[in-house]
Design a protein that fits this description.
Layout: H1 6-19, H2 23-47, H3 50-69, H4 73-100, H5 103-131
């Protein structure tokens, strides 16, 4: 179901936000959107909206696969491999949550994703500060 009015404006805002973001800022945006869909799915499970839950978990799964496909295993090494394993875990959990409607399990996934979002947002802020010639630990060099 497509929204009119503010829903369309919000989608346009999100599209502009993504298109104008630096590469290092895209991962936190993906985590942010993932959290929106996960939290929405939790509310939909509580409300008994199974169709909405399925749509929200489907959108969340698409974002997890986008995160997985964006990993650079050559540059990321062990961290990329660990993230790939974590994304695989998220994918399996989302499928199981969709089947069982387990809100406690979903709450644990939301907590994990929120922690990752915070870490990526901090890393992006540090990268942005470095790109802008900011000083501090991130900008210290030899």
């Amino acid at each position: 179901m497509k929204r009119n009015g503010s829903g369309t404006a919000y989608q346009q805002y999100q599209q502009v936000r993504v298109m104008s973001s630096r590469r290092e800022g895209l991962v936190p945006l993906l985590y942010e959107r993932l959290l929106v869909h996960l939290r929405r799915a939790s509310a939909q499970i509580e409300a008994g909206d199974l169709e909405g839950k399925a749509e929200s978990l489907g959108s969340a799964s698409e974002i997890v696969f986008e995160l997985l496909s964006s990993l650079d295993f050559d540059a990321g090494g062990e961290i990329a491999s660990r993230l790939a394993g974590l994304y695989g875990f998220f994918s399996r959990e989302l499928m199981e949550i969709g089947r069982t409607l387990d809100r406690e399990r979903l709450a644990r996934v939301i907590e994990m994703v929120a922690s990752l979002h915070e870490a990526w947002a901090q890393a992006a802020a540090m990268a942005q500060a470095g790109a802008n010639g900011g000083t501090g630990d991130a900008g210290a060099g030899a």
